[in-house]
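Slide 14.
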Amino acid sequence: MTVSRNSRSPLYAQIRQEIEQDILDKKFVPGDRLPSEDELAARFGVSRMTARRAIDQLVSQGKLKRIQGQGTYVIEQSPPSQTAGITRWSFERVDKLQGISRRGLHIAEHSPSLRVANALRTIPGEKVIQVTGILYLNDDPIGYYIDHIPKLLAPTINEETLGHDALPNFLARRFNLEFGKVTERIRAVPADEEAIEILNVEPDSPLLYIDSLIYLKSGIPVILSNTAYRYDKYVYRGLLHPL
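Slide 15: predicted structure.
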């Protein structure tokens, strides 16, 4: 790893490019811990501030992730979209309902399942916060949700601080997070025992199940949300915009 002080490219940009190339060459793979800022500074013969700036850029690009007290890790990259270049419409969800309330809030810290870890690109050993609750329209339960977020982003969140707010709204207001795109997968599933009890539906009644993955503007996924709705109480609506 070398940098040139005679190059027109800033030192931090050269360091960033060197690390990016090491990731492409699989010298660092997802889950690997990167050398510390002090180690990088010594290796490249630069100040710690310069090394930190290079790392900051890679973190903002979603290629690295810092875990407080542990270090900086390489994270899994999302595969390129198979529809790139052929999409002709953008989608806007417009099914917001008035009078929705959130009840039965419960927040807990735990180790993520493989599905959650892959979606949020967590590092081995990293904890996530799980937020669960029930959605009511007036006094009728119409759905329930399970949200996951890396603990690093909201280490102090609890039932009292979140209250009745939606998780994205709370994070944007409390931590000044700026959200970007949202990907969704929609499917019909039969009600299981938990849904029967929570939503007061018949066994095997159809539910509308929506998996949402919310990203920051930097491209890092931060919230995995899974919501199940009663088919007779909720209608999903969207609006397509030509590009």
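Speaker note: The two ends are 43 Å apart (CA to CA).
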